[in-house]
Amino acid sequence: MSDGDGSSDAETATRSARAEESPASGGTDAVSEEPAADEAGTPETRGAEASAPAPTEIDVGDLVGPERRLDPKVRYVWVLQAAISSLIFGVMVGLPAFLVFERPFVGPAVFFLVFTVGATLAVFRYRRWSYQVREDSLFLDRGVVTQTRTVVPYVRIQHVDASRGPVERAFGLATAVVYTAGSRGADVSIPGLTPERADDLQDRLKRLAIAAEGEDAV
């Protein structure tokens, strides 16, 4: 009786040991079948990273252009401004001359003289005004009595505004105002632009300034 019980207990213990070994071995096989994670990532991940688009670079060659002149309508703006200034100046001089010296012709004479000079300068001013967006700088050439040539490196440009005064709006024009580093106000103003050209110039100078800043940092 004791021998039978001993044999039965031994067989039970053997079966229990085998049952315990079976899940362990199965778990080991399941773990071994999983692919080891690569530090560089899976092939699919590496392929996705390789095919990811590179950051967009600014092509300076597409932003530069030839020398441009102002819109012809800017002459009317300048002539109108000259007329307003002449009228104010004529009243300031002519009114005292009429009240004190009884000379009524002084005011109209001053107005005519100042307006003639202002209108003439407006025509020549338009002929001498030009600008060019170059690869490394903005170039401006202007001036009647004194010719002024200005070179504004893109790396010094802080921001660009497009403004439209009352007279400019009446003629459908705008002015591009360029601010540079270290200046107290607007360094450069380009008048006589259509609103579309002013916005385009503002965008071009902004992108060229960003490109120049990146090259300077390198």
Automatic annotation (TrEMBL):
The protein in question is named: PH domain-containing protein
Biased segments, Low complexity type: 7-16
Q: Which parts of the sequence are annotated with region: Disordered?
A: 1-64
Positions of transmembrane segments: 76-99, 105-124
Q: Which UniProt keywords apply?
A: Membrane, Transmembrane, Transmembrane helix
Keyword Cell division applies? no
In this entry, which stretches build a coiled coil?
none
InterPro entries per the UniProt record, alphabetical: YdbS-like_PH (IPR005182)
Instruction: List residues of the YdbS-like PH domain.
Output: 126-204
Query: Superkingdom, according to UniProt?
Result: Archaea
